[in-house]
Amino acid sequence: MIAFLIVIGVLAALALATLLVLRYYPAFGGRPGEAARARMRSSPHYEDGKFVNLVPTTMNMSLRENLAIMRDFMRGRPGGKPDQPLATELLSPLSLKRDGADSPQAKVTWFGHSALLLELNGRRLLLDPMLGRTPSPFPGIGGKRYSDRLPIEIEDLPAIDAVLLSHDHYDHLDYGSIKRLKEKVGRFFVPLGVGAHLERWGVDPGKIEEHDWWDEVVWEGFTLACTPARHFSGRGLTDRNATLWCSWVVDGGGAKVFFSGDSGYGPHFRQIGDKYGPFDLTLMECGQYDKRWAAIHMLPEETVQAHLDVGGKVMIPIHWAAFTLALHDWRDPVERAAKAARERRTSIATPRIGQTILIGGASYPSAAWWR
Fold first, then answer.
1. What CATH number has the domain bearing residue 333?
2. Is residue 236 part of a domain?
3. Kind and range of the H or E element at 41?
4. Residue 183 carries which DSSP code?
5. What pLDDT does residue 23 have?
6. Position 281 pLDDT exceeds 60
7. Domain that holds residue 205
8. What pLDDT, in 10s, does the model give residues 6-45?
């Protein structure tokens, strides 16, 4: 009897500790206030306390499949990550200050995974700036970034006019990155519900704008549109789909860019293309996929089709080359996307991490640097 009571006490203590960590550890984010919840409830994409996709989207895998996935992740696999840390091209703070906000030339710099710096129309925009070491609420736990260093440290970045976030998963919205960035950023554009995380982390609520799918905002000479994606959200054990996920249209006057966020393939790409296309450049999710969860992460061939659906001229595959979050070879996403692009006769750019390229330039990088 005493042993039974001890076991019950230990389990209760563990349950209480888990609840306290989820409630008070800041990396898990915040909860929307009443005004934000009212806006969420009024969304046509909100049902029974959760956001929903435009088309049915499920990941109903059997217990056997889930156990097999856990086993495979624990074992690892050859080619799951680079043998050596990936080299990055370094960005000079001086060059950014000299050529950034004062330059009329549209540029993009990839930081790995889905983090990018856009320089358009005399403004600097950061997209999904996860610049931490691990996509985890606990920095010491989780697979580390493939590269030893970023193209530029957060502290060396010049002022950022706006940050655009696609959703609240750890590989896109990072507590440590936001804490270090927040004083540099003039505006945060986020999908519904995500603002609560930023507020908890000390971002001035006056800097945050939350948007639903198909919302448009005119800002500093830009037209920004919060557009659909086929995915999900959540940072804890009980908040799945409690906040919205999205893609973004960025029309900077001289150049038009589409940022997919995370998404499975679906009819929304054609809808976005019909309304906002064509695009000078698409930044398309390509990586961390598996046939078992293809509803929420595109296979590379679908990535190329989505690029064509939105009316893209040139595509940069993103969401790869930083972390191992799936079971494929780390090079497979870009290899398969490049092959599909050749077969579909569309243009693909493959910049190195940290390499700045001109949008609408005469040529784009195409070297297979990952081999």
1. 3.60.15.10
2. yes
3. helix 34-41
4. G
5. 59
6. yes
7. 78-358
8. 556 544 544 444 555 555 689 999 999 999 999 999 999 9
The whole-number pLDDT of residue 66 equals 80
Q: Tokens at residue 310, please?
A: 């939105």
Write out the DSSP string of 141-158.
SSPPPSBSS-SS-GGG--
Rounded CA gap, 224 and 50, in Å?
Answer: 25
212 domain residue, yes or no: yes
Q: By C-alpha distance, which of 269, 308, 260, 309 is closest to 287?
A: 260
Overall pTM surpassing 0.70 (yes/no)? yes
Q: What would the mean pLDDT of 89-97 be, rounded to a whole number?
A: 84
At residue 83, what are phi and psi to the nearest 5 degrees?
A: -70, -30
C-alpha distance from residue 118 to each of 102, 162, 253, 287, 299 (Å): 13, 10, 13, 21, 25
> End-to-end alpha-carbon separation of the chain, Å?
62
Q: Is residue 244 part of a domain?
A: yes
What is the pLDDT, as a whole number, of residue 5?
46
Calpha distance 26→347 (Å, rounded): 42
Is residue 31 situated within a structural domain?
no
SS3 of 185-235: the string is ECCEEEECCCHHHHHHCCCCHHHEEEECCCEEEEECCEEEEEECCCCCCCC
pLDDT at 63: 77
Core vs surface per residue 305-325: b (16+ CB within 10 A) or e: bbbbbbbbbbbbbbbbbbbbb
Domain count, the chain: 1
Residue carrying structure tokens 């799945």: 240
Q: Which helix (DSSP H) or strand (DSSP E) does residue 14 occupy? A: helix 2-24
Residue 206 to residue 286: CA distance in whole angstroms:
34
